[in-house]
Amino acid sequence: MSQNVIELKGVRKEFVSTKHYPGFKGAVKGLFTKEKEEKVAVDDVSVTIKEGEIVGYIGSNGAGKSTTIKMMSGILTPTEGTCLVNGIEPYKNRKINAKNIGVVFGQRTQLWWDLPLSETYTVLKEIYEVSDEDFKEGMDFLYEVLELEPFIHSSVRTLSLGQRMRADLAAALLHNPKVLYLDEPTIGLDIVVKDRMRKAIKDINHKYHTTVILTTHDLGDIEELCNRIIIIDAGKKIYDGNLSDLKKSYGCNCSVHFEVKEVPELGKYRAIHEKLEITINQKKLSVNFNKMDFSVADVIAKIMAIAEVTDVQIKETELTDIVKKIYQHGVEAS
To answer: Percent helix, strand, coil in the chain (nearest 5)?
Structure first.
């Protein structure tokens, strides 16, 4: 049975700052008053993540994702609660924690701008005290899955965005960390490079059982990589479960689009069932319904009973729509 690699219990993070007032009068007032204001970035979040899981940690801008990652990586200290990564509190044991984690930020690099990539990895090898044998084995694997060979001797400043992201991922994995934090790892990448990055992450997870925490606005990354997602909004955890369960519970709406030879009278459609929402545009008709009330087969059969159908297209509710609805209304409304 896999052990818990990450445990958050009632974690809360508050930021306290001096209140600022607008305009010249506000600036003068600020000289004589030191009124403070508090902002709660993360509010009573409890999460356990097991070894080898790939978890999508998603939320709108300002929801508290990055703050949570910074607490788990040891950059920030929680105001309340407990955060354990590999059995230690990251912010109390930063050096030990740094050897157990890898971090990739999509808009920042940890590589030395003017060094050839090969020399960068040699420097990181010494920093993380990786043995020659482990370094060779790890780099051979990373060369293959990330296809580093064509640009391994190029300086970082000459790399394209896709090459740099692959190089950053290799740098984060060079010391074979137990936990990998990925913050928007595919941002700005084209489809081919995205697919390569996603495949590499899956291969690394499969080979080394690396636990991966992925924050992203690209829900394609989530669908491709994660079986479990955690949704955070306004600092609070509002969903934690399997991706398939989320779709099953909150993705009940479905639409079937038909092309027909002749459009029967609208009255015949209205007579099918009041819970079916039917729209007609020339010889195309769309039927929207809830899968808790009807199966797709039932809907197709009902339409084919009154019209000669030449083409059918089925559209399930996409993850993007589900998450957007949860952001706006919470899980209750979905």
So the answer is: 40, 30, 30
